Amino acid sequence: MRVTRIFEDLQGHESHSNLGQDDFVGLLAKHKALLLRSDEDQNPFNVDEFAEIIEDLRLSKYEYVGGAAPRRLIPVKANVEVFTANEAPPDQLIPFHHELAQVADPPQYIFFYCDLPSETGGETALIDSTLVYRFVADNFPQFMEKLKAHGARYKRTLPAEDDKESPIGRSFYNAYQVDSKIELEKKLDKIEGLEYEWQPEGNLTVITEPIPAVRMIEQQHNHAIYQWTFHNSVIAAFLGWQDSRNDRMNAVCFGNNDPMDPNVLDEIAKFMDDNKVSYQWKKGDIFALNNRLVMHSRNAFTGPRRVYAAMFGDALPSDQVKRDGVGQIVKDFSALAVSDPTTFGMWRLTDPEETVYQAIRAGYRRFDSACDYGNEMATGRGIARAIVDGIVTREELYITTKLWNTYHDPMHVPMALDRCLKDLGLDYVDEFLIHFPISMEFVPFEEKYPPEWSNMDGEMVLVKNDINATWKAMEELVYANKTKHIGISNFNCQHIRQILSIARIRPTSLQIECHPHLSQEMLIRFAREAGIRVSAFSCLGGASYISLDMATSQDLLFENAIILEICRIHKKTAAQVMLRWAVQRNTLPINKSSSSVRMTENRGVFDFYLTKEEMKAIDSLNKNHRYNDPGHFCEGGMGTFCPIYE
User: 175 near 115, Cβ under 8 Å?
Assistant: First the structure.
């Protein structure tokens, strides 16, 4: 089978001997829309082969309820429903929309199959929904904020019988899968906020409840997406919901019933038309669309045309057994899912109290702290101010702190967290990490805090310690409700194996240095396959290390030609491009800035995505170069040779 990434490389293809569920879900999470064709030496797919292909993907059945277009079922041998695509008259354009975005739970995957291409036109045109979101947010910010806040309501009058002359002529019996008006009323009465009215001629007018019209798509089966989408049928309703029963100018409004400016809607529709991807159907072609990320339409056409469709919910749970690096079966991957991957780091800040306060105002909710940063009291004051001012609640924050090297002895572990909690002014942290797999001589809290890398004599002294015993002491802190989760930092694969071998409570996260000069691909894969999410510090490269003489101006990625070219294409900063690269690699990038403008700017990574080629281009910058390596700075600064990555 030939697989083409429609938005990224419409002229090329990759060969897949067997497109299984995992491959399919991953491809559509990354690339949004695929064209599937038979191999060049094979006949085009027929409709039964189309049905077999989608059946083998093991996707959940989706009940087609609430749709506007009339449909006819197509008989196939496989146990899936295949039906006609919208059978509106050929001279009518079907505007862009997410399929069934006017209902609360739209399908996740949409398929189209071409049995007979039209003589002219008839393309199923596509557009990236995130591209539309960015256009609207940049050009009509007030409209976008209102759409985010209130969603949209849709108004449609449905006939008692299918009207095949109308693109929205599906009867209310078929639209809601009922056999009687009484059954229909019972179904509609259960939907809070929905209004309906019977018309004298027997038609039914329905005004939907407020439906979210802008969505953040976070992850799909552990594949990071994190993109805003213009997830609605607003333009389809505005342009296309017109027939003898419906006036398109009254088809949609904001969720609070305020009207939408038709001039804004016209501009959005024009942008969609100017930026759409149109592909001329060939017999046997299959479109596979991620309905959460892609909008589709249909161009007008001449001559006969037969295009069929199928829609599904999420992928069914896999029965594949997954094991970690020590052979244990892994069933819980919940740690990989977070609502927002951007994390604000507290290392080396000039005014940590004000900085953390402003970061919370800018929208950050995940904060990375540590005893060793020496600023947890100020960090705590900034957090407390934000809570008192009503900007955020404690429950909305995710606070990470770390166990320093001098406190690895099990008796010192709870004392170390107690001190962090006291300084932060918190009853608990969300995550407590072992900062380094390095055990050093204990330094009493009252004599020196934070102890940094040396004892009271200015020497770095390594000591014998069982890191497994340290981990068991960490587990006790979870049982004591002082931290919700525990994890590790700067650990390599073998360090992680050691912890996994004895853990009653598995690590939820691994924090590592990771940037285009140090991509750490295998370590990231190793951790995630064990159900451990990965946070990336120094994700912008060596900039923070120049003042420490641990990097030079030659290490600056902000001036790299490859990154600057990608910046030009997407109209984004170098930081935004590198942060987006980190997100798409399934890591949580830790960044920081003392500038409120830059804080907001660095969160602007959810309105674009990098193509496969762009990701590969940034990957090519890898040179396995670490800036934060105890194997180097400990010997140079403290006279102790302490490699941990070799």
Answer: no
Active site members = 373
- pLDDT for 447 beyond 80: yes
Which one-letter amino acid corresponds to residue 596? S
Among positive and negative, which fits the CA dihedral 460, 463, 468, 474? negative
pLDDT at 543 over 90: no
Tens-digit pLDDT profile for residues 147-163: 999 999 999 999 999 99
Is residue 506 helix, strand or coil? coil
CA–CA gap between residue 65 and residue 86 (Å, rounded): 15
For position 66, what pLDDT does the model report?
67
Count other C-beta atoms under 10 Å from residue 316's C-beta: 13
pTM given for the model:
0.94
Residue 319, classified by CB atoms within 10 Å of its CB into exposed (0-12), middle (13-18) or buried (19+), is exposed
- 380-415: per-residue pLDDT in tens? 999 999 999 999 999 999 999 999 999 999 999 999
Burial class (CB in 10 A: 0-12, 13-18, 19+), 52: middle
Tell whether the model's pLDDT for residue 311 goes beyond 80: yes
> Which contacts (CB < 8 Å, 24+ apart) does range 259-262 have?
260/143, 260/152, 260/234, 261/143, 262/238
All residues at 6 or more sequence positions from 346 whose CB lies less than 8 Å from its CB, including other chains: 352, 355, 356, 367, 368, 369, 370, 373, 375, 376, 379, 592
My answer on whether omega of the bond before 450 falls inside 30° of 0, hence cis, is yes
Within 10 A of 321 (CB to CB), how many other CB atoms are there?
8
For residue 336, how far is the Cα from the chain centroid? 11
